[in-house]
Amino acid sequence: MTNTHSFSPAVPVHTYQRIVEQIEEAILSGEIPVGSQLASERDLMVQFSVSRPTVREALRVLQSMGLIESRPGTRGGPQVLAPSSKTLGRSFRTMIGTDALSVSELVQYRVILEGSASKLAALSHTPEQLDRMRLAVERMQAAADTNAEDFASADLEFHEAVWAASGNQILEMSGQAVSGVLRGMMQRDAEGEHHDNRVKLASAQIDRGLFDAIAARDAQAAGKIARGAVADRFGPLLAPAERAALELLAE
Transmembrane residues, as ranges (predicted)? Predict the structure, then answer.
């Protein structure tokens, strides 16, 4: 019997997208320095062996991404701008979405991210950010007995609030970048046959404890709770050697 799968239609990749990818990589890697100018349209046409309209479309996309800026009266091509957090987040999401990262690496990253962000959030949160966390925890507790999707959404909202409260743009940016992966893991976990309401209530209680530590500005306790929660929740997915490494990170 032939297995079937619901695939999406294949979408052809336009030539200009390949140009965008190469120039973006060169800018992010520092191969093309910030403040320098790209080659002229004519030179790019020769380098990429494409037509002028293709080069112009690639440049338009790069400009919309905030990587280059066309300035009237300048010689050569557009000026290269410093990558914004939005641009870096896009690149990070691309990396996370590939098969190059293992589940173990992703879980290890979560331990580091959640622990560090929670410690910083305990030190630097604002009253508004604390209210956002409180509401998210209350939503988790209310949804634990009713709606798995609402529970996962509230859980993610709580962690996004912690990332934002850390005051560290890199932590917030990278946290946002993995939010899609986290949502998928949370929803599968919440809807699995082995995940009953008691487990969801326990998860909400842990986040409530994390909230209390952050509200009390107890950075050490907040970091420990956050690291332990990730290790306990996702450790069973890992091999024994990987779990041992995870426990070291969670200490």
Answer: none
Q: Which of 221, 245, 224 is nearest to 235 (CA)?
A: 245
The model's pTM is 0.67
Backbone angles phi, psi at 80, to 5 degrees: -85, 130
pLDDT in tens, 141-179: 888 887 778 888 898 899 999 999 999 988 888 887 766
244 forms bridges with which residues in the sheet?
none
For residues 131 and 128, what is the distance between their CA atoms, to the nearest angstrom?
Answer: 5
- 251: three-class secondary structure by DSSP: coil
Helix-, strand-, coil-residue percentages of the chain, each rounded to 5: 70, 0, 30
Cα–Cα distances in Å, from 230 out to 29, 118, 186?
32, 12, 12
